[in-house]
Amino acid sequence: MAVLQRLKHVTQEYDGKIVLRGVSLSVRRGEVLSIIGPNGAGKTTLLRIMGLLDKPVGGEVIYRGVKVRKSNAPHIRSKITMVFQRAVLFNTTVFDNIAYGLKLRGYSSDEIERRVGRVLERVGMEKFSKRRAKTLSGGEQQRVVIARALVLEPELLLLDEPTANLDPTNVTIVEEIIRSLKNNAAVVVTTHNLFQARRLPDRVVCLLDGAVIDVGKTDDIFRHPKDERTRKFISGKLF
Amino acid sequence: MSELLEIVIISLWISGTALLLSLLWSIPIALTLGLRRFRGRGTLISFFNAMLGIPTVALGLILYLILSRGGPLGILGLLYTPTAIIIGQAILITPIIVSLLTSAIEAVDPEIMNLARTLGASERQASLAVLGEARKGGILAGVAAFNRAVSELGIALMLGGGIAGWTRVMSTEIQRATGAGEFLLSIQLAAVLLTIVFALTFLMNLLRRD
Amino acid sequence: MLITVLGEWGLNKVVGIMLIAAICSFASLAYIETLRRTEDKLMVATTTSLYDTGLLDVIADRYRAKYGTNLYFIPLGSGQSLEHAKRGDADAVLVHSPSLENQFLQENAGGARKIIAYNFFAIVGPGDDPTNIENLSPLAALQRIAQVKATWVSRGDNSGTHMKEKNLWQEAGFDPTELRNDWYLESSSGMGRTLSIANEQRAYTLADMGTYLKFHRNNLIDLEVLVSQGKELLNVYSVMAVNPSAHPYLNFNDAVRFIEFLVSSEGQNIIDEFGRSEFGRPLFYPAVELLRENTDPQLVSWIRDYAFFENSECPPRYRLGQEELYE
Q1: Whole-angstrom distance, CA of residue C70 vs CA of residue B165
Q2: What's the confidence (pLDDT) of residue B40?
Q3: β-bridge partners, A190
Q4: Domain C41-119+234-326 has CATH 3.40.190.10
Q5: In this structure, what DSSP letter does residue C318 have?
Q6: CATH number of B37's domain
Q7: Which of A82, A119, B2, B19 has the fewest CB neighbours in a 10 Å radius?
Q8: Contact state of A90 with B111 under an 8 Å Cβ cutoff
Q9: Coil vs helix vs strand at B122
Q10: Checking phi first, is residue B181 left (phi over 0); if not, alpha (psi -120 to 50) or beta?
Q11: Given a cut of 60, is residue C253 above it in pLDDT?
Q12: How many beta carbons lie within 10 A of that of residue C167, not counting itself?
């Protein structure tokens, strides 16, 4: 499968503290990739760099074979969408939240109406279109923010712990949605939930202390971990 | 009555234009102060907070000396024109808009900016998204600023001169009519002024309600 | 509610509407400014006592009807008016403070001075006159007030009336700069407010007739005129053009025409007529014919003593080339 995004020796630090140490990885079209690792391993930091929200202090990000620079970042960013761990919502209706990105892209209001309606149906939220987004429950909010990302039909969708705060029903719904995306986009999901990491992705990247310690197909990682620390982590001994 | 109406219209026009003029620079200043972190930011915020209470007569005097024919900008011939009052009031209300709007922007979820970016917004569009989230504070800032402008006396008097049908606004006319013993006119104008201020505040509360 | 409004319009539209409003309002501002700049107008800095009577509104209406020029009167008090004129912020001044006017002329800040009207100040006080100053001479009245420490309210604002009041105290043997104490109050405000304060404090004060009559007639004060006779209370109004040599943009030609209008029989008639129907007596007396024909030698000699410099209402070197005004 063709590589969509590649990270080469990416280093990041916050307030002088090193958070990522030379991370290299690639995301392929049509796959679900999980980044697993304990809290504080640098998963969110890595995802923000992949989403071009933060610029790394070292290394480079390559998208479709083109190195990301300040000049082309806004253009590339329009093909990537990130969903934060916490549901961040505009203080407007569900409809307006989802329509925001479409409006920026200059779609006609008829087209926006149609696309928003379709995506709401897909996440099972069609009845909530006129509701104020912030009055929804946690699971409903999470579905709205995913819908808001999906409606833009991104090439690369980055999800930061999308099910961390959800009840089992909503977890199933969200995972269904992620799986259904595979044909159209590459999806990167961070998680510290080992069960999810086992059932959801095609491949897994194992991150520890800001460094990639293991990469591979989900089955390979979970059955034959190459790294001793990976083995410890997936057996729950690293927490 | 037509004299009264004329004064009210001139007042609203002058202070309304002052508000719009001030917004042209106050919104970018507030966005910069609220969203960016840079050296001297704290000092600037303290400065604007301190300027909230600037006496209108002091500002009026400074601007008079600048705009007067003998002053550095005298060549423009702006003294005793509505433009002079508009400039003065726009400067007067800048700290009000900047302070209130900066607080409102700071209160917005910091991830909104990033959210807008991930949805494809440019930096300018992302700032606008934050401004949209801060709209309640923005409306409060606008109404407070307009009320201050339309009620102030010092600047309108010193830069406008209270010329009938030209720079005579509600506050200067209340002051003049009171001094001249025309209490009926003073009371009518004061009533109109209070009505405008209260009506705007009421309307603001209505709009701010979710 | 705002959510609904913004939801339907969108923030972009709200910003757009604001921008359109801003453009409209700036456009109207620019339009009106250019309109006002191309029209004929004359800025006249003047004294509040004259302005508040309404006489200047009548003059402005008649002047506009005749010449199409708008007169913009800025009420400031005599001292302040002359300061503004020195800075070039007025084309002409209409004031009543001969000593300040003399200084103004000597500084070459203006000229073409013409005395246009006169009246008398009055010492007013409570109707029962607890200090018994009624019908005393002005100076004797002040001396009596100081002696018994009856409350006196001074304008304290460098207006023409205040200058007059300071002169009176000086002539009565007091130094006005040392007078401020528990019975001598300074209101630092206009005539109207000073009268109101005097009314509340049961105090005496020096008032110009115009403002006093207006307040008295509207029952805003119950102070009575106690002393209004005597050379010392003479009040003389004059007009001057601001010297254009220091401020070339000044509208000197219109200023001269304005002076000509005020001293013409038409202008003098307006002054004579004003207030007769409203107050039953004139507030100001025209001075031009009186001075030219010497119809009342005593009054003329008072005016000459008080408001002439070097035996002339405007010494020739200050006439700014407008000799015909003095023929």
Answers
A1: 11
A2: 92
A3: A35, A160
A4: yes
A5: G
A6: 1.10.3720.10
A7: B2
A8: no
A9: coil
A10: left
A11: yes
A12: 16
Interface contacts A/C by beta carbons within 8 Å: 10
Report yes or no: B163 at the C interface, CB cutoff 8 Å: yes
Phi, psi dihedral angles at C77 (to 5 degrees): 90, 150
Measured between alpha carbons, how far is B56 from B53 in angstroms, rounded to an integer? 9
Tokens of A204: 């897994």
The whole-number pLDDT of residue A205 equals 94
The answer to whether residues C209 and C49 touch, using CB atoms and an 8 Å cutoff, is no
pLDDT of residue C6: 52
Quick one: DSSP state of residue B157?
A: I
Q: Does C10 touch chain A (CB under 8 A)?
A: yes
Whole domain around residue B161: which residue ranges?
2-209
Number of folded domains in chain B?
1
Complex ipTM: 0.87
| Interchain contact, A92 vs C10, CB within 8 Å | no
Contact assessment for residue A147 and residue A162, using Cβ atoms and an 8 Å cutoff = no
Q: What's the pTM? A: 0.85
User: Which residues on chain B are in Cβ contact (under 8 Å) with C36?
Assistant: 81, 166
| Euclidean distance between CA atoms B173 and B177, whole angstroms | 6
Residue matched to tokens 């200043």? B29
Q: Give the pLDDT score at C10.
A: 61
Question: CB–CB of B70 and C6 under 8 A?
Answer: no
Q: What is the pLDDT of residue C11?
A: 64
* Cα–Cα dist B172/B193, whole Å: 12
Tell me if residue C68 falls in helix, strand or coil: coil
Distance (Å, whole) CA B93 – CA B148: 7
Q: Are C187 and C153 in contact (CB under 8 A)?
A: yes
Q: Does residue C122 contact residue C232 with C-beta atoms inside 8 Å?
A: no
Q: Which CATH number fits domain C120-233: 3.40.190.170, 3.40.50.2300, 3.40.190.10, 3.20.20.70?
A: 3.40.190.10
Backbone angles phi, psi at C115, to 5 degrees: -80, 125
Question: Which range, B161-175, C240-254, C256-270, has the best average confidence (pLDDT)?
Answer: C256-270
Q: Is A232 on the interface with B (CB under 8 A)?
A: no
Per-10-residue mean pLDDT of chain A, 239 residues long, equals 90 90 93 90 93 92 93 90 93 93 92 94 90 91 92 94 85 88 87 87 92 90 84 73
**Residue B15 in contact with residue B89, Cβ under 8 Å?**
yes
Domain with CATH 3.40.190.10 in chain C: 41-119+234-326, 120-233
CB B93 within 8 A of CB B51: no
Q: Are B74 and C88 in contact (CB under 8 A)?
A: yes
pLDDT at residue A46, rounded to an integer:
95
